[in-house]
Amino acid sequence: MVNPSVEDHRSHVRPIPEVRWEDSWGAIASDGAGNFGIVTDFSSKRKAKNAAIAECRKRGGGMCVVRLEFLNQCAAVVVSTQWAESANGPTVEEAVQAGTQGCGNSDTGKCWVYWTGCSMAKRVW
């Protein structure tokens, strides 16, 4: 019980704002002939996919299709002279590891990292 003669300071304390997170989508599109469209930081999967296809076409791609969408994660494209592997994971390192394994399993020669990036959730109030 609060003493009525003593001012109650609890009513003057601001509540701590609830932390909110906004999802972030990325996508990788390719035409299978070496042209890629890679985008990050989109607010929806649909927007990310459409932007990746548009970027692939802008870079000369013909029949561009989405190879990978990723939400609040990182991604990598690992390639050889005849193969491209897109992979995602919680970190760049894990995405590269998965992509390297997939490319290596293709038996198409030496693989190297073509691209890495992340599309992580953003803190909003």
From TrEMBL:
Q: Which residues form the DUF4189 domain?
A: 25-118
Question: By its UniProt entry, which InterPro entries does this protein fall under?
Answer: DUF4189
Give one Pfam hit by family name.
DUF4189
Query: How is this protein named in the record?
Result: DUF4189 domain-containing protein
User: Source species, please?
Assistant: Luteimonas soli
The organism's lineage is:
Bacteria, Pseudomonadati, Pseudomonadota, Gammaproteobacteria, Lysobacterales
